[in-house]
Amino acid sequence: SRRHKLYREELNLTSPAAPVPLRPEASWLQFHLGISRDGLYPRSSPTVNRLLRDMQEFPTISADYSQDEKALLGACDCSQIVKPSGVHLKLVLRFQDFGKAMFKPMRQKREEETPEDFFYFVDFQRHNAEIAAFHLDRILDFRRVPPTVGRRINVTREILEVTKNEVLQSVFFVSPASNVCFFAKCPYMCKTEYAVCGNPHLLEGSLSAFLPSLNLAPRLSIPNPWIRSYSFDGKEEWEVNPLYCNTVREIYPYSNGNRLLNIVDMAIFDFLIGNMDRHHYEMFTKFGDDGFLLHLDNARGFGRHSHDETSILAPLSQCCVIKRTTLLRLQLLAEPDYRLSDVMRESLLQDPLAPVLTEPHLLALDRRLQLILEAVRKCTDTYGEAAVVADDTTLPQVPASDRAKLDT
Fold this sequence. Notes:
By secondary structure, the protein is of the alpha+beta class. Helix content is about 35%, strand content about 10%. The protein has helices spanning about 1-10, 25-35, 45-55, 65-70, 125-140, 155-160, 165-170, 235-240, 245-250, 260-275, 315-320, 325-335, 340-350, 360-385, 385-390, 400-405, and strands spanning about 60-65, 90-95, 100-105, 150-155, 170-175, 180, 195, 200-210, 220-225, 280-285, 320-325, 390. Strand 5 (about 170-175) and strand 6 (about 180) form a beta hairpin. The longest helix has 25 residues, at about 360-385. The chain starts with a helix and ends with a helix.
């Protein structure tokens, strides 16, 4: 605390700062303004590349715990928290131009696989999985993962010396190897043995751009119909009933519209990255029941390249529906000239922490893609292509009254 106080006095940070004007061209603002019912950003968005660069280069001006950790400590309104966890450390870093990003530090080396005996709900969270998930989401043309980039953070200068949170300051320490470390402050599994450490100060991690605040852009958090049992021995109905989708189809909003098709998209994405932890999904309320699903919190992906968890594909295999645009993109990425592993490898080279994924993880994407296409073939053989492939390639007709309003 004394060191922190001296640091702020040295930089003349004790006096109230003058109001900072909001620059309309700021990348964070432009990213928020670009969100539409089609996705978090347009296909060819120069703003995203600028935002990634800003998150990589801008100095941090403050650091704090996320709302999840604050909820666990009773220091915020828990009604707005989706799922308090606290098991895995994450911090909110702020930058100039009102920029804000979620920092998840490195907890597992790239070449390490998740042990076979680990349950999905106690798995590590991997910073490189967050980065790779963003790139894959963009390649699949979903555009439902917030822009994410890797960065090496000086934990002393860019976290400890800029935070105003005394609890966060108190969890920093120097390890026997003279590395600066810190850990989460929460009711369970948050001790020095679960700390993350710099080398001696630098620590790599992922930075994911924040979405607009809930006041500006309200979101719903909805349980996934294919949620897993978060116990050691229990099973959910979908895991034992192959006709489970018939029940889901009778429930609004899965009975009509695009919601079920969006769930299948999410399952395909999760199967490719190996994420079994999708217990909830979020949506912007502004876009109604047919809005896209946000693919948030992907850090438990890319854990085991040697295992394909086909149960993640249950929404596809049980419901036997898929969007035509999704199927066409998957078929393209299975072609030798556009192989998914090659496209991912090239895309990930743009990240400062490249190589983000090891070669076995990249090759696993090709193998899993073939399993998805095989599941679609089984469905079409059984029910016919017309019943399985939903045509979403045609733009919906805008009513004449709405066109008049738009023209005005």
